[in-house]
Amino acid sequence: METVLVVSQRRSESAENAGTARLLAKKFNVKVLDIPLVYDFPSGSPVIERLRSLPVPAYFFTPLSCRSVKSMLTHLKIPFADVFETADSVQIPDGGVPGGQVERIDESPQARWYPIIDDSKCSACLECVNYCLFGVYAIGADSRPFVDQPDACRDGCPACSRVCPGKAIMFPLYEDRSIAGFEQSSEDDMDILVDIVDQI
Q1: Residue range 41-66: average pLDDT?
Q2: Which of 71, 79, 140, 172 could, after both became Cys, cross-link 57 (CB 3.0–4.6 A)?
Q3: Which pTM does this prediction carry?
Q4: Do 85 and 66 contact (CB within 8 A), yes or no?
């Protein structure tokens, strides 16, 4: 079976992004699906259906945090082998396509803003359900919250992520890296400490 790498571009796509897809295809001799930002596609879109129907779990390279993308792909029921945040971190097996191959998907999804829940960190406390004023969340048959109405979320609002005690809710495009789903580094901890000291 062939190895497939999905390269999910930034919204402000540039020639540099397209060049990255070509370089990765050639480096690993793989078929690359070059798509717009995967976060923007609704669940029933043709691109999401195509990703669900790939013959093997694909590898994903995106500008978003690995944690948010893995959680999003799981919720969308898209099998994946691994997710990478930087071109330097991509490590995949040789795909057996000499020189690689890039298939560009030109569908233009509408920009979206909605939360993604990391089920491994969610304690089902339902703070998000009780806090959200816009009806984004619902409670599933398993008594756990899920994102029922993603497009009801207000653009730029990360409030539910801030009240989540388990830090399970992510907004991948938010400027605060911890809310975007990136793991906090010791450097981030130092920045927080400096901010606290400056306020004293």
Answers
A1: 95
A2: 79
A3: 0.87
A4: yes
